[in-house]
Write a structure and sequence with these properties.
alpha/beta; OB fold (Dihydrolipoamide Acetyltransferase, E2P); Rossmann fold; 7-stranded mixed β-sheet; 41% helix; globular; binds adenosine-5'-diphosphate; binds magnesium ion
Length: 690
């Protein structure tokens, strides 16, 4: 409000529209592009194909011409090399009154051709005065503004002027926020210079240096924050020690294991055993593509917990998935006599009470379930290990609630099949150690992916019939998105009827989220037992469903799914020994971005490649997984898809500092603590990262 050019009204608009309430906010409101105003051209050089041109000269004459709709102000502008017409259709009086005779002006605008003559319509005019600094020599910054701002005289140029005024009236230097040693060692620009340069760069080289410095700082403090929390947790939390491998794991390994473990499975189990025996709390993310065998790994780690007389639980995002885990695991450990239960929203009261009691007295050893597990009423006797499947569906807070299920927090293993780009993982899960299963069990044939337009439906049906006749089963998935739920639901049920008619000799079932759990179960049972050959479903089957005999996945209106969701859905097939197929059905007219998505799906089955591509297309903010768990901060200048190298460097340097000084108490690190505290206050959300 006190900055020259603002005042109470504009201050209010800046606050409402951009959340700018302080000088600091304004200085950290960065331009999104720059226009080169460093060069002044001669009129003789003008070429109508130029995007912008800047000229210096005088207004030789000024007159109003035409009338009615063609009424306009026309000026002849001259320099030593020639003359050109400037034209205004709007604000004639204002322009006319503000132009002073016999003065030198800088003209800026886009040259255009009218009736074979070059002119400039609605140019910007700035009076040139020998001794006064020009606002926009060099590169002109452009700022994002809103309609409301524009209608209140706060367009990009106005913001530029405010920033300019601010720097003019501010005599000191903007206090530095990084330690001098870090700046010098890494040849970073100092903050004061970087901030001035990011708004008013004199050349591209300096602009690059300024951007680099500001990106580095942004990523550095995020990493320092996460790594500090991680370091402190390691120092402060005494983890339950699982020192023994006993009866349960040994018997399972020798008698029950249905196949040889892959090398990758063995490696991640080793990594976890190391954590579990270390006396530190395990906080590990297990990444493995769909079908890579994470469940088995989870089970074996759970058995280690049992071998050390601890209880353990496995939490899944949906009832279907929890039930399936319960069935798979119960079957695998049947002869071991382990007390295991399933707890979901639809567990009956009497059964629920019995489970609660058995958890409290310690007789219940393994609990599998949905969110129902984190309710306050669920109290364990001695919970040692928590496993969370398909992490992207859970918020970070829910993770934290599980921690509290034992006085001394249990070990935590988070499993995800949504491969996330490395930079995003470092940021959202930066406090977790990471294990990766990068190998599929042997004998899997890569899934073939085809992209069909709707007009190929007959061909599709022929193909499906051929596969079903071979004894295979088929999924047909429809999008169901909340905003248009009614319409989508119609598509789904019509699709169901259509399949019933098209395949009268076979059985089709339908599954969607609005069915009663018992109906859902029944349909799932029909399909997984093989009595039904076709399942028409919404994305409720996206996560975790495992029917190895299903070998064809048809995705209807595939254009409406994001890449990672398509990849998840595709992962429902290719689980048996048969050749599997994924068929993407779309309309013929597709947006460029959608076409790209389909191409990527057809080209690769590598989840990490898909995740990277997804981030490039959509930017990290929109990625699935980040929506649910929420990117806990806005990045002002750095980009997780483009600045991977800077991020890695920032993380390494933050780690290096913490290795020397885990609590950041040394005098030279005071500045870091101060800055972390300040950022934590500004972004309350920050604690969400941990
Ligand atoms: P995800 O990692 O997607 O959760 P699952 O744990 O559901 O994968 O495993 C997918 C399928 O692979 C299951 O049918 C499982 O029994 C099988 N499987 C797991 N590990 C192996 C292995 N080492 N060899 C052969 N098949 C395996
Ligand atoms: Mg799984």
């Amino acid at each position: 409000m006190y900055l020259p050019g603002v005042g109470p009204k504009k201050a209010d608009i800046l606050k409402q529209e951009l959340k700018i309430v302080s000088y600091e906010d304004l200085v950290y409101y960065f331009p999104y592009k720059y226009v080169d105003r460093s060069r002044i051209y001669a009129i003789r050089e003008i070429d109508p194909s130029m995007q912008h041109i800047q000229l210096k000269g005088r207004i030789a004459s000024l007159k109003t011409v035409g009338d009615g709709r063609t009424k306009r102000l026309s000026a002849v502008f001259t320099d030593e090399t020639g003359s050109i017409e400037l034209v205004w259709f709007k604000g004639l009086k204002f322009v006319k009154d503000s132009i002073l005779p016999d003065q030198i002006y800088i003209v800026f605008g886009k040259p255009s051709v009218f009736n074979g003559v070059i002119n400039i319509v609605h140019p910007e005019l700035e009076r040139f005065q020998e001794n006064k600094p020009r606002i926009q020599a060099g590169f002109q910054p452009h700022y994002n503004t809103t309609e409301k701002m524009k209608s209140n005289f706060l367009n990009s140029k106005a913001i530029q002027k405010l920033v300019h005024n601010l720097f003019l009236s501010y005599n000191g230097k903007v206090p530095e926020t990084l330690p001098a040693s870090l700046i010098e060692k890494n040849k970073l620009m100092y903050l004061d210079e970087a901030l001035r340069t990011i708004h008013f760069p004199q050349n591209l080289y300096n602009l690059d240096k300024a951007r680099y410095r500001l990106k580095f700082e942004e990523l550095f403090y995020i990493q320092l924050n996460i790594l500090k929390l991680k370091t402190q947790r390691k120092l402060n939390i005494h983890g339950h020690v699982f020192s023994r491998v006993g009866e349960y794991l040994n018997r399972f390994y020798t008698d029950q294991l249905p196949f040889a473990l892959t090398e990758a499975q063995k490696r991640v189990i080793r990594e976890m055993r190391q954590d579990l025996g270390s006396g530190k709390q395990m906080n590990r993310l297990l990444q493995g593509d769909v079908g890579s065998g994470k469940t088995l790994v989870a089970l074996m780690v759970m058995l280690i917990a049992l071998d050390n007389n601890f209880q353990t639980c496995l939490m899944a995002p949906t009832e279907i998935l929890a039930t399936q885990h319960f069935e798979t695991i119960s079957k695998l450990i049947e002869p071991l006599n382990i007390k295991t239960a399933l707890l979901t929203g639809s567990t009956k009261k009497s059964e629920r009470d019995a489970i609660h009691a058995a958890l409290r007295d310690g007789s219940m050893q393994i609990l599998i379930g949905t969110h129902a597990l984190i309710e306050e009423t669920v109290i364990f006797n001695n919970l040692g290990l928590v496993i969370i499947d398909e992490q992207h569906r859970f918020g970070v807070e829910q993770r934290a609630r599980l921690w509290k299920k034992n006085q001394n927090p249990p070990h935590v293993l988070v499993m995800t099949a949504t491969p996330i780009p490395r930079t995003l993982a470092m940021t959202i899960y930066g406090d977790l150690d990471v294990s990766v299963i990068d190998e599929l069990p042997p004998g899997r044939k890569p899934i073939q992916t085809l992209h069909y337009y709707h007009n190929k439906r007959n061909q599709l049906n022929k193909f499906l019939l051929q596969e079903i006749n071979k004894g295979r089963q088929v999924y047909v998935v429809y999008p169901l998105i909340e905003e248009s739920e009614k319409l989508d639901f119609k598509n789904l049920s019509e699709g169901y009827e259509y399949m019933q008619k098209a395949f009268p000799n076979y059985k089709t079932v339908m599954v969607h989220g609005r069915m009663k759990p018992s109906e859902k179960d029944e349909a799932m049972q029909e399909f997984s037992s093989g009595r039904a050959q076709i399942m028409v479903a919404t994305t409720v089957i996206e996560v975790g469903v495992n029917v190895p005999n299903a070998s064809v996945m048809v995705i209807e209106s595939a254009e409406r799914f994001g890449l990672s969701q398509l990849h998840q859905l595709r992962g429902r097939v290719g689980r048996g020994a048969e050749q599997s197929y994924c068929i993407l059905m779309t309309s013929y007219k597709l947006a460029e971005e959608t076409r790209k998505r389909m191409e990527i799906m057809v080209r690769t089955t590598d989840g990490f490649e898909i995740a990277e591509a997804d981030m490039k297309i959509r930017g990290p903010g929109d990625l699935e997984g980040t929506q649910q768990s929420g990117l806990p901060f806005d990045l002002k200048i750095a980009s997780l898809s483009k600045d991977g190298r800077i991020l890695q460097m920032a993380r390494d340097l933050a780690q290096e500092i913490l290795n020397q000084d885990p609590t950041l108490e040394k005098p030279e690190n005071q500045i870091l603590t101060r800055q972390l505290t300040k950022l934590a206050r500004a972004k309350l959300n920050w604690s969400m990262i941990s």
